[in-house]
Amino acid sequence: MAKYLFTSESVTEGHPDKLCDQISDEILDKLIKQDKNSKVAVETLATRGLILVAGEVSTKGYVDVQGTARKVVHEVGYDNPEYGFDFDSIAVLTALHEQSPDIARGVIKKEMGAGDQGLMFGYATNETKELMPLPIMMAHKIAMRLAEVRKKKILDWVRPDGKSQVTVEYKNGKPVRIDTIVVSTQHSPKVKNKKIRKEIIDKVISPVAKDWIDKKTKFYINPTGRFVIGGPAADTGLTGRKIIVDTYGGFGAHGGGCFSGKDPSKVDRSGSYMARYIAKNLVAAKLAEKVEVQIAYAIGVSKPVSVMVNSFNTGIISDEKLIGIVKKVFDMRPGAIIKQLKLQNPIYRKTAAYGHFGRKGFPWEKTDKINEVRHYL
User: Fold this and answer.
1) Which strands make up the sheet holding 118-125, listed edge to edge?
2) Which of 100, 102, 189, 221 is within CB 3.0–4.6 Å of 197 for a Cys-Cys bond?
3) Predicted confidence (pLDDT) per residue in 289-348, tens digit
């Protein structure tokens, strides 16, 4: 298509689903810090007055689940009973048990096997400096700014729950402008809609998106007219329900598995990080303008059952040759991924809001394989 629109969304750390992701990953971090070989699969549910943490854990460490959940809720910003959900008055229920021995026997062996079957995707594109699609990066930056103006009290009426959505106009495959921006933010009942619209555009959107906005850009700010009741008091949250927000905003494919609450033996997480690492290095090395990588595994088996690279006809060599380079440069066995990307460190809470990709500080975002991949041209 010569011209088209593409839309991606993000949510703030106070969104019910993201609150759950952060609780699950905070528990994971605490366990990995004590025992790097912890096997963790923790799911969190949050609703009015209640958090439920359930899952499978095998570890030498210990975590105070109730205290950890309350800590995350407080840090995210639910610290006032007026919000309908606050860290001090919620009930926290726990239902954790050990990992199945049938799964453990395929993972815990000399050469680590995959923790489950599955297919994972990674994606990269040269349309932004982060090598990410523009719509999702803009949506994340707006959501992050929305949290920032709340925490720094730049806008004292903003409350924790919020969402952003950005529609970008593309011409010949390249982003040229932002067509539409949607922001919905939980707010104090005392603030007027006119003030909400003006201050969100001036203080939240413009500082991060001004280079892509023009006179024709449309803004929809709290389009329902009221968003006082929010967070888990309004909508039940679940771990793993924002997998497109977590990845590429709808660009590329998705294998279906979520990330949060899972230790790196789960290839849903580590395999997806590796696929992003591969895709980003191929694009950074200028072997293609955009790349999608698929890796697939069988439970208990270390080597992938398949590896695919799609350059969308933007590669300087064929996709078949790109696959050959990937197999020579990148070791995609789960144990090797964990070692290469340093995944047995407590880094996961930081990933649980505003996307797992496109942000500095994560090992899978490094472009340290450029020379190696170019060596095989």
Assistant:
1) 118-125, 290-297, 306-310
2) 221
3) 999 999 999 998 999 999 999 999 999 999 999 999 999 999 999 999 999 999 999 999
Q: For residues 245 and 356, give the distance between their C-alpha atoms in angstroms, rounded to a whole number.
A: 9
- Cα–Cα distance, 305 to 298 (Å, whole number): 7
Task: Give the pLDDT band of residue 377 (cuts 50, 70, 90).
Answer: confident
3-state helix, strand, coil in the chain (%, to 5): 35, 25, 40
Any residues with CB less than 8 A from the CB of 105 and at least 6 apart, and which? Answer: 300
Q: Tell me the C-alpha distance between 122 and 276, whole Å.
A: 4
- pTM (two decimals): 0.95
Order of strands, sheet of 39-47, starting from the edge strand that comes earlier in the sequence: 91-97, 50-58, 39-47, 237-238
| Cβ contact 27:43 at 8 Å | no
CB contact at 8 A, 274 and 296 = no
Dihedral sign of CA atoms 351, 352, 356, 360 in order:
negative
Measure the CA–CA gap between 128 and 158, rounded to whole angstroms. Answer: 29
The three-state secondary structure class of 148 is: helix
DSSP string for 313-333: T--SS-HHHHHHHHHHH---S
Helices (H) and strands (E) in the chain, counts: 11, 11
**Angle subtended at Cα 247 by Cα 246 and Cα 248, rounded to the nearest 5 degrees:** 130
As a whole number of angstroms, the distance between CA 303 and CA 314 comes to 28
CA–CA separation, 253 and 248 (whole Å): 9
